[in-house]
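Q: My labmate handed me this sequence with no annotations at all. I'd like to see what the chain might look like in three dimensions before we decide whether it's worth expressing. Could you predict it?
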Amino acid sequence: MRTISKTRSQPRPEDIRWMRAALGLARRAVGSTAENPAVGCVIVRDGVVVGRGATQPGGRPHAETEALRQAGAAARGATAYVTLEPCAHHGQTPPCAEALASAGLSRVVAAIRDPDPRVDGGGLLALERVGIEVVTNVLSEDAAQLMAGFLARLKSGRPHVTLKLATSLDGRIATASGNSKWITGPEARARGHLMRARSDAILVGIGTVLADDPLLDCRLPGLEARSPARIVLDSTLRLPAGCRLLATAARLRTIILTTDAANPGTVAALEAKGCEVRLIGSDEDGRVDLVAAFAMLGDLGFGRVLVEGGGSVAAGLIKGGLVDEIDWFRAPLVLGGDGLPGVAQLGLERVDQAPRMIRISVETIGHDILEIFRLET
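A: Here is what I predict for the chain of 377 residues:
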């Protein structure tokens, strides 16, 4: 870790306003920047925005490059507000810190430092060395949450995992017969599609595929192109030949996670349909090892994974300590004890063994309630 300057400047009152604007730009890009973080940049001169940009689809160009291109000569003497420390290493594009310095900026305000070992303070130091005033830690918590996927991959080697549950008041996702359409209302379902658009991948278990034959795409008008990769946990390769996932695998990235014991002929048939089949070690029950599976997804560049079911998958992830956030939609109805639970058995003997959550927010969506929880650490 590089040593940070002890004389680094303090934020000004207007810095909060402009950093919020940069975060707003970054928020729009979440889910579309591949393995790169979604970053926003606003360039301000004399109280007027002269350039703005966000990380572009696929991760290039970077937000700073877009904002500088828009600002042109007006960037000289201006302040750049960036949600993540500008990069300092040469990759597919030159370092953003170098571009900001060459543009003649007088000041750079960064929300958070980039923990990537290739950067890790180097971008900020490069700016300070050429006389640019640098300010950090402005709305840092907001920025960290926005880049949770990028930061999770660097910290733990796996994606940030959001478990989405849509249940009755008594925590059921379907009736005893398996019927689940529709527990929540259209407004909640639309929000679920927005969550898909903001994710790099959506994951379900084979039980959900067999019960619902889902398409797992984003069907919000104007955001159809933001459909995430689709991932299925299928330990014994039971994916039906006529299911909608296979019918659309050539168009939408579809990954099947199975065990090393998978039948080679079945693997070849799935690959011929356009699926990517990944072989992973199994746990003591012969199912896909979830810890290994999510480590693989991190290696593949997935930062945000949205998990939509079912109960066994939810329980496995919670027991494995793999859930970072739970987005729980509750509908105003009761399905009873014979309904299918949103979370299967955890095998707990005492209440103090239960994972504790911190409720972050509560929102009314149509006739339903959305509560967001994060794991207590």
